[in-house]
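Q: Structure for this?
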Amino acid sequence: MNFAHRHVLGIKQFNAEELNFILDTAKSFKEINTRKIKKVPTLRGRTIVNLFFEASTRTRTSFEIAGKRLSADTVNISASSSSVVKGETLEDTARNIEAMHPDIIVMRHSASGACHYLAERLDCSVINAGDGTHEHPSQALLDAVTMIQHKGQLAGLNVAIIGDITHSRVVRSNIDLLHKLGASVRIAGPKTMLPPGLERLGCKVFSRVAEALEGADVVMMLRIQLERQGKTLIPSLREYSRYFGLNEKNLALAKPDAIIMHPGPMNRGVEISSAVADGAQNVILDQVENGVAVRMALLYLAAGGEKQNHDADEGDIHERLAD
Amino acid sequence: MNGLLIKNGRVLDPANKIDAQLDLLVVDGRVAAIGKNLSAAGAQIIDAEGLLVTPGLVDMHVHLRDPGLEYKEDIISGTAAAAAGGVTSIACMPNTRPVIDNLAVCRYIINKAKEQGTANVFPIGSITQGLKGEMLAEMGELKDGGCVAFSDDGVPVVSSELMRRAMEYADTFGAPIISHAEDLSLVGGGVMNDGPVATELGLKGIPWVAEDAMSARDIMLAEFTGAHLHLAHVSTRGSVELVRLAKARGLRVTCEATPHHFTLTDEAVRGYNTNAKMNPPLRAQGDVDAIRAGLADGTIDAIATDHAPHHIDEKNVEFAVALNGIVGLETLLPLTLRLVEQGIIELSQAIALLSCQPAAILGIDRGTLTQGAVADIALIDPYFSWQVEPTKLRSKSKNTPFGGWKMKGAAVKTILAGKLVFER
């Protein structure tokens, strides 16, 4: 199919066919990451700027490795070393970077809509690596690859997402993607962390974790961030853990073969017990592994997905993408 | 004789219950006569056939940004925008730099408007010194100097005790307190209406209860003190209901609504449109419907713009950091006339909401065509079709969510004290 998107701003912009295409592309890139020589020349000569206005280890590293394995030149800019502290506007910062002709800017920013804002003003591609509490499309895509890896397909799955929904960009992207590809989404958390309108988005909403876990195929736990959530939403981590944490006991309510996911970083003993986090059902590191393949796919597609300079190693990928 | 004879228009003066095809004679800047087939030797004649002849409109909620923030707006550009909108009297909010909390700033505004402006400007003094919410401003002197009301608009008076004293003190001098009703702890850093749209966009919501809770407190204080409370820019169903209840109980409570709050919902924010960001925020359809019902049944006393000019650099940023507010003076009239076309309110009601009713709240002798009144007059073509082009607005700032909208109705001539100040 013809992938007609220059930017990747959110799951919202894609239909089911396009999402499946991205997931298939990611799957075909996955093999490269297990080779001894983990590099293909697909994006040789392209420049990717990772522009991160918020701290990130996992996502930034993942995008950087993805770019490098495609032979692109990758540059990392973090907010602390950028002009933000000098009072420069986001548009000016981005325009200055664009003047150096990058092909893709991968951006993380604390303001919802910041990537949308940039995409409207720049000529290069923009990939959203997380904007405020809005979207985190590459995370939802890597979650989907992981679910498919373990469950075969998304259609018909019952996915329980538990935690602070209000402040989670991961959730917004996941809800949209899962619904578009036929899964059901159940949401649970304290009412202080459930935003209005979740039902309108097609979710089943529970305030008791047990109800959401009952018969779930996938359990996704969200990180509790006291620094972001402030002090009024929950009384203590101790109580949160007791009523909203995942442990061996309540996990038994889910299907016996349910998989456990977490976008990281985990707070062991808060939203997830170590026994569960390290248990047989956890696929948390599969998520991280699949993240690289998903980001390779997004970089490749945003760069235009053109055939160029490819050697035999990647010929199979391009052959497949050509039809 | 210095005369002006406006012939054959539909004279609409709600304060005097006049709505008829009549002539209006202005002599020496005042309304000399209204009647059939008037004639006056030597008077300049304006043919108003097909036009409405109404009192010059009164906008009781405007941010003129002068002194101190003239890069957004000043008294000259702001009153030019007013004149183009058919508005001849504006009350300006005190969040200037310095704040209108002293006689010098009050006089500066009045004098500059008189010398260089094209509309009457009535300053609203601050409730507290420097808008800090700590000490009362010198309301007695400010009232004598020309301030018509007191408000800390933009920020609520957090302390209930201070708000009580402000009402008592302002009432001593016969001035209303205009409340910007917002419980800041409930706002909690929100940037748009709390609801499904905010959830989807990942933007922090401002729940309706933030407004309702403070409106309720202020109404209770108005009951307790017996003072005149005016609620600025009501945006929620709850606020409208609270005012309705207060009026039924005979309290001295009035309120205003803005055109954007009865025209748009929070759906306008989609795409992170910073020209749809204001405070109070655009709300849900149920709130819009409640405001329209409140206008129709008289619960809401005035339509006011909350004209809030901001420079493009302050809007061309991430949504969360964009400043609140939109310009409104030049779209006030057509957006109000839309309500008439939609059958929500009568034409005479619309004009009353835009003239004599806000004038009565402020206690100013404007908003009527009574014989002897200052001849502030708007000649309105209710069928004039035009499109909003932000760059063509007279205001220095172009921050409107109505860019590209097709409008019906406009002032074609605006007359201030008998002098033509705007002509389309």
